[in-house]
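Q:
My hope is that you can spare some time for a protein that puzzles me. I hope you can help me see how the letters and the tokens relate. Thank you; the sequence and its tokens follow:
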Amino acid sequence: MTSASFIGSQKRRQRLLNFLADGKFHSGEALARRLRISRSAIWKLVGALREQGVEIQSVPRQGYRLPREVDLLDRASIETALDESAKRTVANIDVLMTVDSTNQFLVDALPDGQNTAHLCTAEIQTSGRGRRGRSWVAPFGSGICMSLAWQFAELPPQFSALSLAVGVAIVRALERFGLSGVQLKWPNDLLWQQRKLGGILIEMRGESSGPARVVIGIGLNTRMPSQIRLQLAEQQATLIADVYEVLREKTPTRNELIAAIASELVTLLQLFARHGFAPLIDQWRALDALADAEVKIASGNDSMFGIARGVEEDGSLRVEVDGTIKKFVSGEVSVRRGPRPMRPPPARTGGS
């Protein structure tokens, strides 16, 4: 297939999804008429979308439909919903139908200028990545897969704490829509009622001195199908939460969520470039899902037990082990007993 025919095929698939996004039945004849192609071509497009992981139901004499209404990703809607400062800063927005990984897409992209951001989001990730090489599962229409690239003039102070700072920015974005109670689990998970709501993956290109380009990848569950939630729980021993179960009819569109997160990230990155993690550490501690919990820390073949005692300004985790504070910069942390209730957040400092 030539490049032009591939692009044309992708556009036809996108147009077909636009018609099916309302979750209602559409006959093959009506779809063919709207797309100005044959019914056989519609059948082929449906098959291609199914191969990409899009669930499309077909019923004789009724037609095709998606299992439910889906708010499709839309570049113009994202751009419109950005804060004014973010509109001036986000130089490029790519909204893709399919990509191997939004992070990899931006890692491979040409670097933008300093103090400008490049945003990428996709309906379908074929090789989405999580921490430690794990895959990030996000069925079509069920969540947000987004990445934002940013170039620092030089490596900021406390750069190792960037994923923690990003977590604070995402919580702020969710709070805009009334989604409260989100906690942060060191080093890069978002939890709601001790279930995983989202995750963060940061990749960096640069030297210890000079420009440093970071790509911040974010996965957020918005409305996960029940069967997928069960599969993930079985495979990862992790329970899943999503935005819809918290907000129900008040759930914002994915475009609105992406715009809010990108806006908060831009503000965060500008602050972080000047001051590092210090202005945000109290906010992170107030959201700490591990605060004073008994934890197990696994690193390689070694495991250690202790009590989580918050984080340092460099992002390292403090754990009290036999009366002594030890610091960890990496490792897998699991709670051995439920943590104490979340403390009320302090007043914001140094940011929006």
In short: The CA atoms of residues 182 and 192 lie 5 Å apart. Residues 287-335 form a domain with the SH3 type barrels. fold (CATH 2.30.30.100). DSSP finds eleven helices and 14 strands in the chain.
